[in-house]
Every structure is written in structure tokens, then in C-alpha cells.
Design goal:
heterodimer; A: about 425 residues; mainly beta; 3 helices; 32 strands; B: mainly beta; Porin; eight-stranded antiparallel β-barrel; 1 helix; elongated
């Protein structure tokens, strides 16, 4: 017992001693941070505008919005410009050219005029001959949110990428009981990329068809564009001379715009907002269906609006779903039913056929005659779709891996017509 | 501190030469330990179970457990310990060495975290108190260290629908080296 007491005494002394030396134990972290440094390439506005023409086609690699006008598909290459695809034969689409429009995200078309954002400008391009488009006019500094202007003469026309590695060694410090988050995470996101406005619109003979993720839409001689907090109205009676009419503040979280007949459906992160076009120059908000924060492109017909609500990361919320609304009374849309989805983005409606881009879960096609009981027709997997235009039996689907075209005239026998693989 | 562990191994070897027998033939022995880990970050709990063979004052076995310090992990290790005297109650030295397994990681639209295992090593002094013929209480204190690597990848997000991101353009590799003082108590059977 003496031995034990002696040991315990020594052990206790040693323990106290070591605990006192606790500060000598340093937790360290050796870091190797790999960054891509983006250095701006400056050009004068004149230079940039002089380069707006049909250049030789380039590989589609980072597509954004799609717009269908007659036999042409326009696909934005995010922040770089617009691809022109001759789709006279959907089984064999031809990439015929590229229009360099730095910082471009969105577009819409009326007749032979393409409207696109470039920095904070709205520009018009004559596309009467898509193989030789011409820059026409500019409404300068109208999209104030974009903020790409350096000054009147100089703009950022592109970026040089340079990889770099930074090494460091420092103390590792835990944050309470939370899992340790590496330095650089928040710093990175605080320096994230720039905001922008968006693209195309709705079915119409003279205006073409845009995807549901559009933030530009042209109809009834007006161009409506949504920014993150507002929407702007342009009078485009004179195609090449858009006249700014007004800007309406909508609060934050504005995402997409979809026109149907005499109404505009604006998808926001907190709900679907409905605007009447009774006064084209001053759309009045007549109804809203609110939901918890999520991303939600929307399409509609006479009776119903369909909105996909995507949860997670940028969008907030926990569950992803399709929300079907009854909009027969536009001032008071009501929920008909929600359907669970996995990772939804854009959607399209052609008659009673509903197409939903459910991201990693694929393109889901439903018979939507009875909105209380949507019937799955098929799911096309492995294409990671994010937006779709469906019209006259042709579905043009943009995915993470390519642009796909399907013939759905026979819903029991949907055929893949072509695949344009994306370069990554 | 690594020198301390080397010294412990040296002590083991030296005491091995003048040790009189405890067991004439190898016999199974197991133990459960719980401990407190003190370091420059918040103190946390360690729990271990070790199973092996005991022979002539030596013990060698394989252990595993949960180490909650800084980043929860599962060390899997070899444990070697040596009694210093040949008495029912006696001091011992021990060393552990093995792999430090960490959780799998996470992935979302913007950020992907990959965790890679590191090493676990520990060494110290203890005192074994016999409670019954084949049951003893172990008290021990020592130095404990674990490492792991966290690779974090980021994407640049386009802040407009569809909010897509580019490929994983950024990556951070971080090698963590966590050093602690451990005090533990356990039962050996």
C-alpha cells in the first residue's frame, strides 16, 4: 500500500506538472492553399463593342440561358457571350458562331433584335443574318447592379487565370464544439463573383421562346428584365432603340421572370409574385404565393402555376419540391399540391405535359392533366438538366454535360434526337 | 515529446532484462480505458479498448477507440506495455502507435471536404493496482498525438439562376498535428 501511495503522490505531482505545461502542447496546422488568381484584361468600350459580331464557333463549355427563335438556338456562355446554333435539323444541330459579349448572362429576342446585358449596359444586336450579326445600339449603365464598369472608356473584357499556392503554418484553433472550418472559406466567398441580370422569355411567334430560368423577357413591345432586387421595363416598339421606362423595386431575392398572356410571374426566393400587364409600362403586383426561402423558377398556364423549389446552399430551405398553384384567381393563388423532388432547376409546360429538370435526378416528364395527381411518364437520367424549352414536340434540354434534344410527339416513345457534348 | 516516447521504449527494453516472470506462458488480457486529453484546444475525452497477450511482464495488443479532441477520430493502434516491477501493484510504461481514422468528409454545391487519416501515437507511465486475481485498475498519464489531413475544395458560384458553379477551382490542404497530455483510468482483465 505504501508503494501505491508513493506512486499516487508522484503521479498526482506529475499530472499537475504536466497540466501546467499544457500550454506547451501546440496544435498546429500546416496549410497549402491553392488559389486561382483572376487578373482582369482591360479593353476600351469601343474595342469591346467593335468585337460584337459573329465569330467562329467555339465549344460550349459553361452554358447559362437558352433561347429558341425560329430555327436558331441561342445559348449563353456565362460571362463570355452567346453561341448561335442552327437547329434546322434537331437531329444534327450546327454550332455556327459565337458572339463575344463580355459579362453577358441573359438575353431575349424580338423579331431580328437580340437584347443582351453587357456589363451594366443593355445592348441590341441585329441577328437578321445569324452568320453575320451586327452590334446596333446600347442603353448604357442601366443595370446598376452589375457594376462591371471601370470607367467610361475601360472595361474588363476577360480574365487571365493564374494558379498559385500559398503555404503557411499556424496554430490550429477549434471553434467551440463545431468542426473546424479552414481559413479561406469565408474569405473566398466574401470575394465571390459579380452579380448579373438574366435572360429570355416566353412562347410567342414574334418573340421566340426562352427557358424558365430567364431573367429577360420580351413581349408586347416591351422588354422586362429582373435584377436581384428589381425589375426594369423597356419600350422596344422601335426594335433597335429600347427606351428605358421604369424600374420597380421588388426587394431582394428576385430570380426569374415568366410571362403568360397578360401577366408576369416573377420567381423569388420567398415566393411567386404575379404582376398584371394591364398597364404595360407599370405592371401592378396583383398576387403572391409565399414560401420559405428557396430557389423557384415558375411556369404557368390558364389554371395553374408550377414552381420548382430547390433547397440547399445558395437557395436556403431543406426540402426540394414542385409546388402547383391554382391561379384562376390571380389575386389569391392557392396551393393545390406539392410533389417532392430531389434537385430541381428549370421546368417547362407544353399543354398538359410538364418537364422538370431535377438536376442529378434527371429530366422528369409528367402528364399534368390532373394537377392533383401528376402522372410520371418517364425520367431521363444521367444528363443533369437545369433548363428546358418544350415546344411543338421538341424539348431542348441544357444540362451540365451537354445540350440534348428530344422528340416527345409520342409521349410513349420519347426519342433522343441529338446531343451536343460540353467541353469541361 | 517524441523523445519521451523513445525513452519509454528504452525503459521497456532495459527493464525487460532484469524482469522476473509474471506469466510462464502467453495469456490473453484486455483493457478498457477512458481518459481526458489536455492540449492547446478544448479538453476532450478519449475512450479505448485494447486486447492482446501478456507474457513475462510484457503486454502487446491491438487497440481502438474514440478520440474526441479537436476533430473526432478513431485511432487503431498497436499497444506495447511493460511492467517495471514484479509485484501485484506496479508501475508500467506503455507506447501506442497506429493510424488515426477520421470521418469521411462532406460535400455540397460549393464545398467538398475530404478527410485523410493520419497517425496516432502515445506513450506514458502508469500504475497497475491489482483488484482481484485477474482484474486490475490502471492509472496512466502520458503524451498523445494525432494527425490528419483535411482537403477542402471550393467552387466559384455564378450568382444568377441556375446558380451553377465552376469546377473545383480552389483547394486547401491542411495537415493537422494535435498534441495532448493524456490522463486515463482503466480496467485490465
Amino acid at each position: 500500500m505504501k508503494e501505491l501511495n508513493a506512486f499516487l503522490t508522484r503521479f498526482s505531482l506529475m499530472a499537475v506538472f504536466v497540466v501546467l505545461l499544457q500550454g506547451c502542447f501546440k496544435d498546429t496546422v500546416e496549410s497549402e492553399y491553392r488559389y486561382t488568381i483572376f487578373q482582369p484584361i482591360y479593353k476600351t468600350l469601343q474595342q469591346v463593342r467593335s468585337e460584337i459580331m459573329t465569330s467562329p464557333p467555339i465549344q460550349v463549355s459553361f452554358p447559362g440561358k437558352i433561347y429558341l427563335k425560329n430555327k436558331y438556338i441561342f445559348v449563353t456562355e456565362t460571362y463570355q457571350g452567346i453561341h448561335i446554333i442552327d437547329n434546322a435539323n434537331p437531329s444534327n444541330p450546327k454550332n455556327i458562331g459565337f458572339i463575344k459579349i463580355p459579362s453577358n448572362v441573359d438575353m431575349a429576342v424580338k423579331n431580328n433584335t437580340l437584347y443582351a446585358d453587357m456589363y451594366s449596359d443593355l445592348i441590341t444586336i441585329d441577328i437578321s443574318n445569324p452568320e453575320s450579326v451586327k452590334f446596333k445600339t446600347v442603353v448604357p449603365k442601366i443595370f446598376v447592379e452589375n457594376g462591371w464598369y471601370i470607367n467610361q472608356d475601360k472595361v474588363i473584357a476577360g480574365w487571365d487565370k493564374k494558379d498559385t499556392v500559398v503555404y503557411s503554418k499556424k496554430d490550429a484553433i477549434a471553434k467551440g464544439d463545431e468542426r473546424w472550418v479552414p481559413v479561406g472559406y469565408s474569405e473566398y466567398y466574401n470575394t465571390g463573383s459579380q452579380g448579373s441580370t438574366g435572360s429570355a422569355g416566353a412562347p410567342s411567334a414574334s418573340y421566340g421562346t426562352g427557358g424558365s430560368l430567364a431573367r429577360f423577357t420580351a413581349l408586347q413591345d416591351r422588354l422586362y428584365t429582373v435584377g436581384n432586387k428589381n425589375f426594369s421595363i423597356f419600350n422596344i416598339t422601335d426594335d433597335f432603340n429600347p427606351a428605358f421606362v421604369a424600374r420597380k423595386d421588388l426587394g431582394s431575392g428576385v430570380e426569374t421572370i415568366f410571362p403568360f398572356k397578360d401577366n408576369l410571374f416573377v420567381g423569388t426566393t420567398t415566393g411567386v409574385r404575379i404582376f398584371s400587364l394591364a398597364n404595360l409600362d407599370n405592371p401592378a403586383e396583383i398576387g403572391m404565393f409565399g414560401h420559405v426561402r428557396r430557389c423557384d423558377p415558375v411556369v404557368a398556364n390558364d389554371k395553374n402555376a408550377f414552381a420548382t423549389l430547390r433547397a440547399g446552399s445558395t437557395c436556403g430551405g431543406n426540402t426540394s419540391e414542385l409546388t402547383v398553384l391554382n391561379i384562376q384567381n390571380l389575386t389569391s393563388p392557392t396551393l393545390v399540391k406539392s410533389y417532392q423532388l430531389e434537385n430541381p432547376y428549370g421546368l417547362a409546360l407544353d399543354g398538359n405535359t410538364l418537364f422538370i429538370c431535377d438536376g442529378t435526378a434527371g429530366l422528369k416528364i409528367y402528364a399534368a392533366a390532373d394537377v392533383s395527381n401528376l402522372k410520371p411518364i418517364t425520367t431521363i437520367k444521367d444528363i443533369e438538366p437545369f433548363d428546358v424549352i418544350a415546344t411543338n414536340g421538341l424539348a431542348i434540354v441544357v444540362g451540365r454535360k451537354g445540350i440534348y434534344q428530344y422528340d416527345y410527339k409520342d409521349l410513349n416513345n420519347i426519342k433522343l434526337l441529338s446531343t451536343t457534348k460540353l467541353e469541361k | 515529446m517524441k523523445k519521451v516516447i523513445v525513452s519509454l521504449v528504452f525503459i521497456m527494453i532495459c527493464t525487460g532484462f532484469n524482469h522476473t516472470i509474471a506469466q510462464e506462458s502467453p495469456a490473453y488480457s484486455g483493457m478498457f480505458n477512458v481518459g481526458i486529453l489536455y492540449g492547446s484546444n478544448k479538453s476532450k475525452i478519449q475512450a479505448q479498448t485494447i486486447h492482446g497477450l501478456q507474457y513475462r511482464g510484457w503486454f502487446a495488443g491491438v487497440g481502438g477507440g474514440i478520440d474526441d479532441y479537436f476533430q473526432q477520430s478513431i485511432p487503431i493502434f498497436l499497444d506495447v506495455r511493460k511492467s517495471i516491477l514484479n509485484k501485484p501493484n506496479m508501475p508500467f510504461v506503455y507506447v501506442d502507435g497506429g493510424i488515426n481514422l477520421v470521418t469521411k468528409g462532406t460535400k455540397d454545391d460549393w464545398r467538398k471536404v475530404e478527410m485523410k487519416p493520419g497517425v496516432f501515437y502515445e506513450g506514458g507511465l502508469g500504475y497497475k493496482i491489482a483488484l482481484a486475481e485477474k482484474l486490475a485498475l490502471n492509472l496512466a498519464a502520458g503524451y498523445s498525438a494525432k494527425t490528419y489531413t483535411q482537403n477542402t475544395f471550393f467552387k466559384r458560384t455564378i450568382p444568377t439562376p441556375p446558380y451553377f458553379t465552376e469546377d473545383w477551382t480552389h483547394s486547401n490542404k491542411e495537415d493537422f498535428n494535435l498534441q495532448r497530455f493524456v490522463m486515463k483510468i482503466g480496467l485490465q482483465f
